[in-house]
Design brief:
Helix content: 10-25%
CATH architecture: Alpha-Beta Complex
Shape: globular
Radius of gyration: 17 Å
Strand content: 25-35%
Pfam family, one: PBP
Structural class: mainly beta
Strand order of the largest sheet: 1-9-8-7-10-11-5
Distance between the termini: 49 Å
Number of strands: 11
Protein name: Phosphatidylethanolamine-binding protein 1
Organism: Thelohanellus kitauei
Keywords: Signal
Length: 199
């Protein structure tokens, strides 16, 4: 699997505000309230309830900047997923994985291993509101991707129907330690009206 650089910024712990609880993140992660994961999308911090419309999804094309507290010697994994994906054969509590980065070490431009390549969230139109949850887990040791590249192609079939417990067991993860989330509203609507459209 291709190794890519991930910008990790050092941030102090701050407790998540109510919007994360309102989104039901703790219930999905099966955890008590967590410190807020510093998350920036297109250089804009996600520090309040943020809902993207379908026409705004190009802003999510690139992986976000993720902030992890500075603790020397620890190794982290970053998991991003959609618990609200649509499927005829969806299993209860299953998720659609949009990103899994392992072997993340503290520092600037540290090297991590992208075991499930980042896919910009793009749920089908008119499937309701989707939550995209980001969570950081502690790794016990550096790991190889499973299955070994190129067996994993990153297809929708391989991303859907996963479970958090499955991934934690597969990669020997503990936590989560931090979390954050935003929403995507897939309900079809017209693009916002702009003055220059009249000319």
């Amino acid at each position: 699997m291709e190794i890519i650089a991930l910008l990790i910024t050092f941030v102090g712990l701050s407790w998540q505000v109510d919007y994360v609880s309102e989104l039901g993140v703790y219930g999905i992660l099966k955890t008590d309230p967590l410190p807020l994961l510093s998350l920036s999308v297109s250089d804009l911090p996600v520090d309040k309830k943020q809902t993207f419309k379908s026409y705004e999804l190009p802003a999510l094309k690139s992986p976000p900047s993720v902030g992890v507290q500075n603790e020397t010697g620890l190794i982290y994994a970053i998991l991003a997923f959609d618990p609200d994906y649509s499927s005829e054969n969806k299993i209860k509590d299953s998720i659609y994985v949009t990103w899994l980065m392992t072997n993340v070490e503290n520092g600037f431009q540290q090297i991590g291993r992208e075991c499930i390549p980042y896919m910009n969230p793009n749920p089908p139109l008119n499937t309701g509101v989707h939550r995209i949850i980001y969570a950081v887990f502690k790794q016990q040791e550096k790991v190889n991707c499973k299955p070994i590249f190129p067996a994993f192609t990153g297809s929708n079939k391989e991303r859907a129907g996963r479970s958090i417990d499955e991934l934690k067991s597969m990669y020997n993860l503990t936590g989560p330690l931090m979390a954050n989330a935003y929403e995507i509203d897939t309900n079809a609507e017209e693009l916002p009206h702009r003055l220059y459209d009249e000319f």
